Amino acid sequence: MKHQLPQKFNEIYHKEAQYAFFSPGRVNLIGEHIDYNGGLVMPSAITFGTYLLISPNNDNVFRFRSLNFDENPEVAVQSSYKKDGDGWFNFPLGVIEHFTRDGHHITGLDMLFFGDIPIGAGLSSSASIEVVTSFALNELFNAGYSKLDLVKISKSVENDFMGLNCGIMDQFAVAFGEKDKAIVLNCDTLEYDIVNSNLGNHVLAIINTNKSRKLVESKYNERVEECQAALKALNQELSINYLCDIDTATFNKYKHLITDEVVRKRAQHVVEENDRVKLAADALAANNLGEFGKLMYASHDSLRDLYEVSGKELDAVVEYAKTNPNVAGARMTGAGFGGCAIALVKQDEFDNFSKELNEFYTAKIGYAPSVYQSLIGSGVGTLLVTSEA
After folding, report:
1. Residues marked as binding for substrate?
2. Tell me, what's the pLDDT at 340?
3. What is residue 13's DSSP assignment?
């Protein structure tokens, strides 16, 4: 479909697209539920994402079209914009509102979006749309924003215009991602390192459990509160801003201060997971996929047993992965309670992995997962309209 986008644009708007852009989705390779605890995460861009073809118009109107959704709204150029229902187009409209509020005069545009990110898989399709729109407007109107500015704008759109609670990892990963590299990001300071992540003869398997995640928001807030309670207890003798300000050895020395066993388990996961990210970065840099895989499994076990955000569906994926000698490692990724798991699978065994996992999962859960193959891809950028879009 992506190769047909220039033709589709022409069919819809009866003219050629002048510009084309792409922004990927993302996965978090390791470092889960520690972003709000001042810790390190290790996301990477993937090779699925959002394409945007665009041409200016003289009609003083923004025309939003998508090959993924039915809504085809037109919004007149104004001095300010408000969210209109729950339609997908509110994400790019929110970006236009932010640029306008910053004093940039954004004139009429004909836009065509297409995403090949699996819908509902938790791979940051919304961040992908926000970042590709921000990048496009910055280029077209010479707004002068840095890439980090675009990340912050996109996060603001998600939080303030859309009213959705999220951190900055998703937008950061899809903007700063590099091919065959992972990002080690400090979610508090936004300092980051790029780590070589050549997967060699392995590919990234993304497994959507296809389970509805209705409990995520309430459980997420519950975990945040438990971490805050742990921090308060530790600060009876320590003076730290975040749980991730200490390492595992220090935590073990002071964990007796946390008298609630459940809260102590939550804090233990956070501190140990932060340490795992550091070890994982070293393993990837040394091209040691075996060690990295062990850390992935340890991360999942911790999320299952200490943080309790997994579930039988995600556990089934990892349970099968552990039996397959062609899998280096696997873990749940994202908020949990459904959503996705990831696995590092030998490329020439991917089809067998997918078939056998499907059979195992369906027998255990009662319905099939969706399995996708990806490499670690590049971040947001400009495409050639005729050849790559």
Report:
1. 32-35, 220
2. 92
3. H
**Calpha distance 145→360 (Å, rounded):** 49
pLDDT digits (tens, 9 = 90+) for 23-43: 999 999 999 999 999 999 999
Let me know: does 94 contact 87? Beta carbons within 8 Å. Answer: no
CATH level 3 topology of 2-197+377-383: Ribosomal Protein S5; domain 2 (3.30.230)
CA nearest to 330, candidates 343, 349, 312: 343
The answer to whether the beta carbons of residues 203 and 373 sit under 8 Å apart is yes
Architecture of domain 202-374: 2-Layer Sandwich (3.30)
For the chain, count helices (H), then strands (E): 11, 12
Q: Kind of pairing, strands 192-196 and 181-186?
A: antiparallel
CA separation for the pair 55, 58 (Å, rounded)? 10
Name beta bridge partners: 211: none
Please check whether residue 126 is in contact with residue 158, taking contact to mean a CB–CB distance below 8 angstroms. yes
Whether 277 contacts 41, CB under 8 Å: yes
Catalytic residues: 170
Do residues 338 and 314 touch, judged by C-beta distance below 8 A? yes
**Domain residue ranges in the chain:** 2-197+377-383, 202-374
Burial of 188 (0-12, 13-18, 19+ CB in 10 A): middle
pTM of the model: 0.91
